[in-house]
């Protein structure tokens, strides 16, 4: 009887241990199943963005135009920009000449229209009063002022020498922009940027799941090359005077 009770106790203990290990393994498996979900949620996005492309561009009417949410308005904006570029760049039209010719055409049409109504015994058309509202101009000036102040603050921070990586990035960007500026005039450059803003974001939004992995690989490679450059070149630059002043 005693041996039977001991065997029953041992079998009971083995069942309890197996149950504990089973629950532990199940909890571990559950945690392991949850980890891939967490990793899947942290997907690399271009430039480290955490918001959709539409919200990155402001999420308003300007974003709708750039991402072709309203195809008529987007096509109209791109068509107007193309017409302006063709007039001033290909046909070598001048801004003052265009304004004068436009005013001549509008005034001539309105004058002939008002004179034609007198021959057919009708009252002349009442021309609308044109006045520029003050509030939109003040808002536009305020936005320009804020952007200029932010740009000045950014340039001041870069020039202070606190962030070497940002300094090199800005210098490289300005150097590339100066080379591009030597190839074409400001109007052509503005038109190229305008066309890129109306073509690259919608294409990226459509194929972002394919572009982001490639961008991640490229970013990793750039970081590796920068680490090599920093180790071989930047770390050999003397920094004694600035550090002594700070300490």
Furnish the topology, listing elements before pairings.
Blueprint: H1 2-41, H2 53-56, H3 61-66, H4 71-90, H5 95-119, H6 134-159, H7 164-183, H8 186-206, H9 208-232, H10 240-246
Question: Would you give an account of this structure?
Answer:
- It is found in: Endoplasmic reticulum membrane.
- One of its GO terms (cellular component) is endoplasmic reticulum membrane.
- This is Reticulon-like protein.
- The protein has 247 residues and is mainly alpha-helical.
- The chain has a domain at 208-247.
- The protein contains ten helices and no strands.
- The protein has helices at residues 2-41, 53-56, 61-66, 71-90, 95-119, 134-159, 164-183, 186-206, 208-232, 240-246.
- The radius of gyration is 34 Å and the shape is elongated.
- Residues 1-9, 19-41 and 241-247 have low confidence and may be disordered.
Which spans have pLDDT < 50 for at least 5 consecutive residues? 1-9, 19-41, 241-247
What is the chain-wise order of helices and strands? HHHHHHHHHH
Oligomeric state of the chains in view:
single chain
Q: End-to-end span in angstroms?
A: 83 Å
What is the overall shape? elongated
Approximate helicity band:
over 70%
């Amino acid at each position: 009887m005693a041996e039977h009770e001991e065997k029953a106790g041992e079998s009971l203990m083995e069942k309890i241990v197996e149950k504990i290990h089973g629950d532990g393994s199940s909890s571990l498996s559950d945690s392991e199943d949850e980890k891939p979900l967490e990793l899947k949620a942290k997907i690399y996005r271009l430039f480290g963005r955490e918001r959709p492309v539409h919200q990155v561009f402001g999420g308003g009417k300007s974003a709708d135009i750039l991402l072709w949410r309203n195809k008529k308005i987007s096509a109209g904006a791109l068509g107007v920009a193309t017409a302006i570029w063709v007039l001033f760049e290909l046909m070598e039209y001048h801004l003052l000449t265009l304004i004068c010719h436009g005013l001549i055409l509008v005034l001539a049409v309105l004058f002939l229209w008002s004179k034609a109504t007198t021959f057919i015994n009708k009252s002349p058309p009442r021309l609308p009063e044109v006045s520029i509202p003050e509030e939109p101009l003040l808002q536009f000036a305020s936005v320009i002022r804020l952007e200029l102040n932010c740009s000045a603050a950014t340039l001041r921070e870069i020039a202070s020498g606190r962030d070497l990586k940002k300094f090199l990035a800005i210098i490289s960007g300005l150097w590339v922009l100066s080379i591009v500026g030597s190839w074409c005039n400001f109007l052509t450059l503005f038109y190229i940027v305008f066309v890129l803003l109306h073509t690259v974001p919608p294409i990226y939004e459509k194929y972002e799941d394919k572009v982001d992995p490639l961008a991640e690989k490229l970013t990793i490679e750039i970081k590796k090359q920068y680490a090599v450059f920093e180790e071989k070149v930047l770390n050999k630059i003397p920094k004694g005077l600035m550090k002594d002043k700070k300490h």
